[in-house]
Write a structure and sequence with these properties.
This protein is mainly alpha-helical. It folds into two domains: about 260 residues, ABC transporter involved in vitamin B12 uptake, BtuC, CATH 1.10.3470; about 35 residues. It has a two-stranded antiparallel sheet. It starts with a helix and ends with a helix.
């Protein structure tokens, strides 16, 4: 029983890690607080589920889900860069609009994918044992995305994007268009989030209009956990740390649920984890100052 719980937790962590990598692109690389992800995660799930339900190939459905997420990111980027709407508000506007769009795509609040072909069933048909198909797919996709992002972030465009998040005035003085960098970054981020939503929907065998609620908090928790536990000395190490952070977060959640935590309190636990992680540098500084003050008093 514990092995099946562990495997299920790892599978979920790998599929959700794609969303976490998307949030990393905006939160860390662009220094942009993007709430579009709460809508684009569901958008990816809704698009893939609707197309699969209508008889389309699941691989094509997943690719179109990625494209739809990229479009959502472009719209958020245009709202911010062309209409000078604040990053937080532009994301909120896109998120609100996507709720209605997702309902339009699905035609109802949820779609079941039971007994329908998905990318997971395709992997099983290739000879991979059914119990391991999701794990194999998750490892392959997560590894591929990490490598692609690492290569991209070391290109000229990727370096300009990183500089846009670090020091936009400097990179503008060098002739780079920071608005274009933001739009590309938001598009890439939400494409990854939509990919995660599409794969999670096929893993769960359903898509629901509310499945993206709380996505941003889960993503931030995973990013911060990964950075704190595994470090950020290089780009590739940071990307791997983000994926591992998603796995650790899912294991923590599975562990506390096994200990009897009410599932209704799960979002409260996530909020506490994020708060503690964000406040940890200040808490460490306060503890260090307190210990130094105590030592000075003892010496006196």
């Amino acid at each position: 029983m514990y092995l099946s719980i562990f495997l299920g937790t790892v599978e979920q962590g790998l599929l959700w890690s794609l969303m976490v990598l998307g949030i990393y692109m905006t939160y860390r690389v662009l220094d942009y607080a993007d709430l579009t992800v709460e809508g684009s995660f569901t958008l990816g799930a809704a698009m893939a589920a609707r197309l699969i339900f209508d008889g389309y190939d699941p691989v094509l459905a997943t690719l179109l889900a990625i494209f739809s997420g990229a479009i959502a990111g472009v719209i958020t980027g245009i709202l911010h860069t062309q209409f000078r709407i604040a990053p937080l508000l532009s994301g909120i506007l896109s998120m609100i609009a996507l709720y209605s769009i997702n309902l339009r795509i699905m035609g109802k609040a949820n779609i079941s994918l039971l007994r329908l072909d998905t990318v997971i069933s395709k992997i099983t048909a290739m000879g991979v044992p059914e119990d391991w198909s999701v794990l194999v797919m998750g490892i392959f996709v997560a590894a591929a995305v990490v490598v692609i992002l690492w290569l991209f972030l070391n290109t000229e465009i990727g370096l300009a994007m990183r500089a846009t998040g670090d020091n936009p005035q400097m990179i503008r003085s060098l002739g780079a268009n920071t608005n274009v960098m933001k739009i590309i970054g938001l598009s890439l981020s939400n494409a990854l989030v939509a990919l995660s939503g599409a794969l999670v929907a096929q893993y769960q065998n359903f898509a629901d209009v509310g499945m993206g609620i709380g996505t941003i908090v889960v993503g931030l928790a995973s990013v911060i956990i990964g950075e704190v536990l595994f470090g950020t000395k290089s780009v590739i190490r940071t990307l791997i740390a983000v994926v591992l952070g998603s796995l650790v977060y899912r294991m923590v959640v599975a562990g506390v649920l096994q200990m009897g935590l009410n599932p209704n309190d799960l979002r409260l636990l996530t909020a506490l984890i994020v708060t503690l992680a964000l406040a940890s540098p200040i808490l460490k500084e306060k503890i260090r100052n307190l210990l130094a003050s105590k030592r000075s008093e003892d010496n006196a």
